[in-house]
Specification:
The complex is a heterodimer of chains A (395) and B (147). By secondary structure, chain A is mainly β. Chain A has three helices and 16 strands. Chain A has one domain: Porin (Beta Barrel), CATH 2.40.160. Chain B has helices at 2-18, 43-50, 73-83, 87-98, 112-121; strands at residues 29-33, 40-41, 64-68, 107-109, 125-129, 138-143. Classes of the chains: A mainly beta (395), B alpha/beta (147). Chain A: This is Phosphate-selective porin O and P.
């Protein structure tokens, strides 16, 4: 009941805002998307194999330009994605945008506040349904369990765009951290954990290059992040820390009637911790994955999509055989990887309105949750499916 | 047989990498409001402006961009021949800046006549036309080498 009330409030807010007159200094935009979705033989989205309406995204954003050097921008969203991420409202971003340098060939912006991470191909607007190539992004790179952390952080970010003889260069750097809800601690670690996981920092750098008037775009990004665990008085985990180092390579080619994009990643994950039963954890593993995506523009309004996405939790154990010996209890081997094939279609049937549908077939469950604590795994069969249909409106 | 396939793939790759879109045919001209004053822009600078990435003129005045609807053949020709990108790429950039708090997408107008009237009446504005005679209050901006 409360969920419907919040959803209704957000939808009314967006509809009211769509009628607001935007003057030169203030602009409003928003989106409403509602769909039907189902994960079959997996609790990735739904628990009972049934179709669900847990595919809601409502957002409203505004930008106020103070002067030629300064503006403020923010976005409020309400999300319901089933088990994919925390259901409810959040401030996706709210930052001061200072245009430090502004020439025709070179611009540099400094963002202070809750800045948006823009380091991957789709991360700048991964929260906005009509800007994504598919309803659900490839989980190897855009892992929904990390949605809020990946989307924005509290701190500072610098971004620069330079047009030169070699083409257009975009360089981005950011340093900050994301607050984590208590329920996310239980999701990352274990339902039995009573304390809180805190992100100490996340440091990112990325560069994208588009050769002059070429249809190629190439880029890479680096990420480093540390986490620590603050235990409760009565807790199963006495202390703990983890760190992530990530390298991502990206490529995109745009043709008149089709688009190809791909991102490859390597993640080094380290966990350390002491448990009350005398178990000590010291894990260092490197995961690898990526996706290749082909979109074909069948007409001005209809687009088809085919994608393969793969992720191996441990590059030294791609079949997951070592999960039998997991120190916190055995885990099924198919949690050591996750391979997904997706087909989809979207139709822009009216101005600012789109209907999208997609189907995915997945082998493995290695990207549904952290593959560490047996009692925090999201349940799935070795092979499982996802179906989604979503109607979107934006202004 | 295998070497023939490899050669074909190499040729296709070479064409994709080194052959950009068609060169400008100059049938479309950039139209600016008389208050803009800038005389020449490089092709890359024009692209930054129409992509919404350059939001202020050197004199501090706000850049206001007018474009035709994506389905209008003049817009398609402008994208292909002047900006040398496809309309869907431009739209993707607009969506990205609009929904990440980075700027505003151009204002879409219904016809060339509407475009001319809006550019003439809006200080700091820029658009495009398929004629060589700029109406009062506007001028044609040159596309040349980088300043």
């Amino acid at each position: 009941m409360q969920k419907h009330a919040v959803k209704g409030f957000f939808a009314s807010l967006v509809v009211m805002a769509s009628g607001v007159y935007a003057d030169d200094n203030l602009s409003w935009h928003g989106f409403i998307a509602q769909g039907l979705t189902r994960s079959q033989d997996s609790a990735f989205i739904t628990d009972d194999n049934a179709f669900s309406r847990e595919l809601t995204e409502i957002g409203i954003n505004a930008k106020y330009t103070v002067n030629s050097s300064l503006s403020v921008a923010g976005q409020l969203v309400y999300l319901d994605g089933g088990n994919r991420y925390r259901q409810g409202s959040r401030v996706d971003y709210l930052f001061l945008d200072w245009r430090v340098a502004q020439y025709f060939d070179w611009q540099m912006n400094l963002h202070i506040g809750r800045y948006k991470n823009r380091h991957w191909l789709y991360s700048a607007t991964q929260d906005v349904p009509q800007t994504r190539p598919s309803i659900i992004l490839p989980q190897s790179v855009y892992y929904d369990g990390n949605r809020d952390m990946a989307l924005s952080s509290d701190g500072i970010a610098l971004q620069s765009i330079k047009v030169g003889d070699t083409g257009t260069w975009e360089v981005r750097w950011s340093l900050g951290r994301s607050p984590l809800a208590k329920e996310e601690t239980k999701k990352f670690l274990s339902p039995l954990a009573q304390g809180r996981v805190k992100q100490d920092f996340v440091h990112q750098f990325s560069t994208y290059w588009q050769p002059d008037f070429s249809q190629w775009e190439l880029g890479f990004s680096l990420l480093q992040s540390d986490f620590s665990y603050k235990p409760a008085e009565q807790d199963i985990l006495l202390n703990g820390s983890s760190s992530v180092d990530r390298l991502t390579l990206a490529i995109r080619y745009d043709s008149e009637n089709w688009e190809f994009s791909s991102e490859l990643l390597r993640d080094r994950l380290r966990y350390k911790g002491d448990f009350t039963q005398g178990v000590t954890l010291d894990i260092d593993k490197t995961g690898e994955g990526g996706y290749a995506q082909f979109r074909y523009f069948l007409s001005d309004t209809v687009t088809g999509l085919v994608r393969i996405d793969t992720y191996d939790v441990d590059r030294d154990d791609r079949e997951g055989t070592l999960l039998d010996l997991n120190p916190l209890g055995p885990i099924p081997r198919y949690y050591g990887f996750m391979d997904t094939a997706t087909v989809g279609v979207s139709w822009d049937f009216a101005k600012q309105m789109r209907l999208s549908g997609e189907f995915s077939r997945t082998h493995g469950a290695g990207r549904l949750s952290a593959v560490l604590f047996p009692n925090s795994l999201i349940q799935a069969a070795p092979y499982w499916n996802t179906w989604s249909v979503q109607l979107m409106y934006w202004f | 047989m295998q070497s023939g396939v490899s050669r074909t793939l190499l040729i296709v790759l070479f064409i994709l990498v080194f052959c950009p879109l068609r060169a400008a045919e100059a049938a479309i001209h950039i139209l600016a409001n008389e208050a803009v004053k800038t005389q020449t822009l490089s092709p890359a600078q024009v692209r930054l402006i129409f992509a919404g990435r350059t939001q202020f003129w050197p004199n501090g005045e706000r850049v206001k961009v007018f474009v035709l609807h994506a389905s209008n053949p003049i817009h398609t020709e402008f994208c292909r021949n002047v900006l040398q990108i496809y309309p869907y790429q431009l739209e993707r950039i607009w969506q990205r800046i609009t929904y990440s708090g980075q700027g505003d997408a151009p204002t879409i107008v219904n016809s060339i006549e509407d475009m001319v009237a809006k550019v003439a009446a809006t200080p700091g504005s820029i658009g495009y036309v398929n004629t060589e005679t700029p109406p009062e209050g506007t001028y044609l901006l040159n596309i040349g080498e980088r300043e």
